[in-house]
Amino acid sequence: MNEMFYTDPEHEPFLFEAGSARALLIHGFLGSPRELRPLARELAAAGVTARGVLLPGFGADIARLKTVRAEEWLAAARTAWKETREGARHTALVGFSMGGAVALRLATEAGLAPDQLILLAPHWKFADRRAAVLPVAKYLIREFKPFGRIDFDSPDMRRMLAELAPGADLDDPEVRHALRNSATIPTRALDELRRIGVSAAASASRGSAQATIVQGLQDTTTLPAYSRELAARMGADLREVPGDHLIVDPERPSWDVVRNTVTSLATGTGLAPDASATRS
What is the DSSP string of 146-168? Predict the structure, then answer.
């Protein structure tokens, strides 16, 4: 990815000290702790100490993504989780998208089960069936350009790029050219994403933690059918909400339900009924 990305300190790991109830928040693929900071601030306001981990190969470390293995993501999250759990009265492990796969793997390891496992639009299977050829494709196609055909006038896309590359003039033709042609994602990294998803799904039935999945009904990245299948494997509580994949975004219609669900579970106060979400 281009060096203009992830320069904002908001992409760095965080720790909001608040109380003896503690939560670890794990970001998604190509994401960073920034995407979970709004949720962490809500947790801290509710008396939950919230930690956000930056996984290897993301954020300011994005140049290393082509060499990072799924095991490194797990190792970094495991270290942060052990630190988060120490001396806690109540623990919550929260994973968004790929972070959901990492959280699920951790929750099934001996001695690491949280009091509450909360998976937000968890990745474990690609919606694009071409992902099945990634184990071979990564040797043939080394990288691809994620912004090659993007619409720079789309409000959602402009907002996302403004977060990834603060200060970039998205109306400047040279900046647009650079984003379209310089920003690349290694195909090998997508195969590691596939691997962590497969591994998480395989471990789903072994978990002992109380688990909740929150899923957007209009999500085209983590399909609702996939979360229903995962919930059935895990015996998890499934809450389906209006919204796309970015259910952790405070500007999305899913935000109120996501915030209320996560804070209620993380504080250990239980989950109040919410008419705006459906439960399965």
Answer: TTTT--TT-HHHHHHHHHHSTT-
Cβ atoms within 10 Å, residue 114: 28
> Longest Cα pair distance anywhere in the chain, in angstroms?
53
Helix (H, G, I), strand (E, B) or coil at 239: strand
Q: Which domains does the chain have, with CATH numbers?
A: 9-132+188-279 (3.40.50.1820)
* pTM for the whole structure: 0.84
| Interstrand relation of 48-53 and 14-16 (parallel, antiparallel or unpaired) | antiparallel
Over residues 169-193, the pLDDT tens digits come to 778 787 777 777 666 778 888 889 9
Two structure tokens written together for 147:
């912004």
Q: Is the dihedral of CA 165, 97, 51, 83 positive or negative?
A: negative
Q: Are 66 and 218 spatial neighbours (Cβ–Cβ below 8 Å)?
A: no
> Are 115 and 221 contacting, i.e. CB atoms less than 8 angstroms apart?
no
How would you class 205 by CB atoms within 10 Å of its CB: exposed for 0-12, middle for 13-18, buried for 19 or more?
exposed
Cα 99–Cα 201–Cα 73 angle in degrees, nearest 5 = 35
